[in-house]
């Protein structure tokens, strides 16, 4: 899939994560920035979840920023999927 536009999903609330996605030039690869209040304990897990989701959508060129406030794995996956679908014009945002 191709990232067509900027998108976001989630919030800065406790136990949530905000995912920000923007397109990049073709063949520029993945640029993933993670900031988490639990980075020392779960940073590798969060990175693996993001990488796995991007792999499942066959996305190789992306700039993704994740700001985590202790979100559970299910929440991270849901926020990622929503942001990806919005960025690929598969799903429309509910608020503008």
Major sheet size, sense and barrel closure: 4 strands, mixed
Strand order of the largest sheet: 1-2-4-3
* Mean pLDDT reading: 93
Helix/strand structural class: alpha+beta
Bin the helical content: 25-40%
Order of helices and strands: EEEHEH
Total count of domains: 1
**Unreliable segments of 5+ consecutive residues:** none
Under CATH, the topology is which? Ribosomal Protein S5, domain 2
Rounded to the nearest angstrom, the radius of gyration is 12 Å
Distance between the termini: 24 Å
Residue fraction in strands: 25-35%
Q: What is the correct CATH architecture?
A: 2-Layer Sandwich
In DSSP terms (H or I, runs of 4 or more residues), the helix count works out at 2
| Overall body shape | globular
CATH class: Alpha Beta
* Total number of strands: 4
Verbal overview:
The structure is a single chain. Helix content is 34%, strand content 25%. With 96 residues, the protein is α+β, with helices and mostly antiparallel strands. It has one domain (7-87): 2-Layer Sandwich (Ribosomal Protein S5, domain 2), CATH 3.30.230. The protein is globular and about 35 Å long.
Key terms:
96 residues, alpha+beta, Ribosomal Protein S5, domain 2, four-stranded mixed beta sheet, 4 strands, 25% strand, globular
Layout of secondary structure:
Elements (H helix, E strand, L loop, with lengths): L6 E4 L6 E6 L7 E7 L2 H18 L5 E7 L4 H15 L9
Parallel strand pairs: 3-4
Antiparallel strand pairs: 1-2, 2-4
Helix pairs in contact: 1-2
């Amino acid at each position: 899939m191709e990232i067509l536009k900027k998108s976001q999903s989630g919030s800065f609330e406790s136990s949530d994560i905000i995912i920000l996605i923007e397109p990049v030039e073709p063949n520029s690869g993945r640029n993933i920035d993670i900031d988490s209040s639990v980075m020392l304990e779960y940073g590798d897990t969060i990175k693996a979840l993001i990488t796995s989701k991007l792999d499942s959508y066959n996305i190789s060129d992306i700039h993704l920023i994740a700001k985590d406030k202790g979100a559970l794995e299910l929440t991270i996956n849901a926020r990622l999927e929503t942001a990806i679908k919005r960025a690929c014009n598969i799903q429309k945002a509910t608020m503008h």
